[in-house]
Design goal:
This protein is α/β, with parallel strands linked by helices. It is built from eleven helices and seven strands. It has a single domain, classed as Vaccinia Virus protein VP39 (Rossmann fold). It is 41% helix and 22% strand. The chain has a seven-stranded mixed beta sheet with strand order 3-2-1-4-5-7-6, sandwiched between helices. Helix 6 links the parallel strand 4 and strand 5. Helix 3 packs across helix 4, helix 7 packs parallel to helix 10 and helix 7 packs antiparallel against helix 11. The radius of gyration is 18 Å and the shape is globular. The two termini are 25 Å apart.
Length: 281
């Protein structure tokens, strides 16, 4: 199949890569908005107190915290240490005990078959080498265990947001890196996990309902302050009032178009994602 390729810095991670992008934001501040997606992933994986769980590309630990609340023994890993520290603070405030470890999804520092369940909630999809990341998920999950990955689709609202940012704040790249939303394509993820190391694999289109009580304008203010890809887009624009105003207006149109519910609230946003469930041999 033809591989989805990144149109530019927003999808491919830009010259500095996605690690540098996510260092700009604070997904802990947005965690309540994304709680339904993380909870759905943990339920789909069937996590219980009997399981040892790894959350890959955990960020501030939306899925890791949900797994710990289910009673599992959890390790959260991410290449951005600052995000892990924010997750640790949230866990401490909730009285949850889990391990936080800086680690690259493409080179996980764990032995083969270490975990019963390996999760990723819109995290591993941003690893530049998708094939290497997929191999690592399989390697560290025990035979008969569960790999559960939630990734934004190329046709969903999050992909439309990424495309908007790229349109108004383009980055210079060679365009050869596969887009992160390739993980939201069933054929692509089946190809990533082909090779005999996975016994069963299924994909399911799901919708993350992101409840939000504010107006579209307030959504823009929140995401401009905390959502790393939006922060990075404004950084790329620089001190250019005309281009800043254009991106401001485009974001407000996006937030208004995607907003479900009366403008006075309460409202919600719905973002499509692909749930991958796989069982290593």
């Amino acid at each position: 199949m033809p591989e989805e390729t990144a149109p530019g810095g927003m999808a491919s991670g830009g010259p500095g890569g996605w690690r540098q992008v996510w260092e700009l934001g604070d997904d802990a501040a947005l965690a309540p908005v994304f709680a339904s997606m993380a909870g759905d992933l943990v339920r789909a994986a069937g996590i219980t107190p009997m399981h040892r769980v790894l959350d890959v590309g955990a960020g501030s630990g939306n899925a890791a915290l949900a797994a710990a609340e289910a009673g599992a023994d959890v390790v959260a890993c991410d290449p951005v240490s600052a995000l892990l520290e924010r997750g640790r603070a949230v866990a401490d405030a909730r009285g949850l005990s889990l391990d936080w470890l800086p680690a690259d999804a493409q080179r996980l520092p764990f032995g083969a078959g270490t975990f019963d369940v390996v999760l990723s909630c819109a995290g591993v999809m941003f690893a530049p080498d998708q094939a290497a990341a997929a191999r690592e998920l399989v390697r560290v999950c025990r035979p008969g265990g569960t790999i559960a990955v939630a990734s934004w689709t190329a046709d969903g609202a999050m992909s439309r947001l990424f495309a908007l940012l790229e349109r108004y704040a383009p980055a210079r790249t060679d365009g050869r890196v596969a887009a992160p939303t390739a993980w939201g394509n069933p054929a692509r993820v089946r190809a990533l996990f082909a090779g005999g190391d996975v016994r069963r694999l299924s994909t399911h289109h799901r919708t993350a309902r992101l409840d939000y009580g504010g107006s579209p304008a307030q959504w823009c203010t929140l995401y401009r302050a905390y959502f790393a890809p939006i922060i990075e887009a404004y950084d790329r624009i620089g001190p250019n009032p005309k281009r800043i105003a254009a991106l401001d207006n485009a974001l407000l149109r996006f937030a208004t178009d995607e907003y479900l519910g009366p403008l006075g609230g309460p409202g919600r946003y719905e973002f499509e994602y692909l749930l991958l469930l796989a069982e290593p041999r």
